[in-house]
UniProtKB/TrEMBL annotation:
Residues 1-21 form the signal peptide. InterPro entries: Cyt_c-like_dom (IPR009056), Cyt_c-like_dom_sf (IPR036909), Thiosulf_SoxX (IPR030999), Thiosulf_SoxX_II (IPR016823). Keywords: Heme, Iron, Metal-binding, Signal. Transmembrane segments: none annotated. This is Cytochrome c domain-containing protein. GO terms for molecular function: electron transfer activity; heme binding; metal ion binding. Pfam families: Cytochrom_C (PF00034). Residues 95-202 form the Cytochrome c domain. NCBIfam families: thiosulf_SoxX. It comes from Usitatibacter rugosus.
Length: 207
């Protein structure tokens, strides 16, 4: 009898243990977010809302490692992001490549110590080769040297380059490239300058 009571108690404990430790995916995400919010401090322009994920980011967190994102989920996310791209109202995509080169070189902006009134940089070189002259560049992204020379100087390619810089994830869900227009890092004029760096025949990218 004692033994049976013992087993019942043990079984009861196991059941209670399961009930109290089971947490759904959503609960886990909420707990992780709450924990991060208590451990980060707001400072200057770096506010805690930076930890809030949009639909794209949530899905990218959910599908990672061995849990591959189903193709149709990725395609739907890309379509949604494409619909949010704001192309220039005047229909032109190219600014000044020299200014674009300065923006691509600059890693300033968006940090707590930066003055939000100043323009942000894009730090393209942190991930891409762009010109022959610059020897220090990252390789997370593909080399963009000779981008337009190889891909064509067409209006369609200009529009693609604009959209890609505006919102990289519209063409490649969960890309690690920042969404420069979508996230308010670069202005329309700055994106045009960076697109000119990629697309202008006079740009060192195409020399
Ligand atoms: C944090 C890294 C990172 C930064 C910063 C970054 N990129 Fe990228 N970029 C990538 C990665 C990774 C890819 C490849 C995956 C993809 O297509 O999104 C890519 C792809 C691209 C492509 C598409 C290339 C193709 O063959 O179609 C273009 C164009 C591009 N980047 C331009 C830029 C420009 C211009 C900047 C600066 C304004 C920039 N990137 C900043 C990581 C980055």
């Amino acid at each position: 009898m004692k033994k049976i009571i013992g087993s019942v108690v043990v079984l009861g404990l196991i059941a209670a243990g399961c009930a109290s430790t089971y947490v759904s995916e959503e609960q886990r995400e909420a707990q992780a977010l709450a924990m991060m919010k208590t451990s980060f401090k707001e400072n200057g322009q770096a506010k805690l809302d930076r930890l809030d994920q949009d639909d794209m980011q949530k899905m990218c967190s959910r599908y990672h490692g061995d849990t591959k994102m189903p193709k149709e989920v990725g395609e739907k996310l890309e379509k949604d992001q494409q619909a949010q791209i704001k192309y220039p109202a005047d229909g032109t995509y190219l600014g000044d490549w020299k200014s674009g080169e300065r923006i691509a070189q600059s890693g300033v902006g968006k940090q707590f110590s930066d003055n939000p009134a100043n323009p942000n940089g894009a730090n393209c070189y942190a991930c891409h080769q762009l010109t022959k002259a610059e020897l220090a560049y990252g390789t997370i992204g593909p080399s963009l040297y000779n981008f337009a020379k190889l891909r064509g100087y067409t209006p369609e390619m200009q529009k693609y380059a604009y959209g890609k810089v505006y919102n990289s994830q519209a063409f490649s869900a969960c890309s690690s490239m920042p969404r420069f227009g979508h996230s308010g890092i670069l202005t329309e004029a700055q994106i045009k300058d960076v697109v000119a760096l990629l697309m202008d025949p006079q740009s060192p990218v195409n020399k």
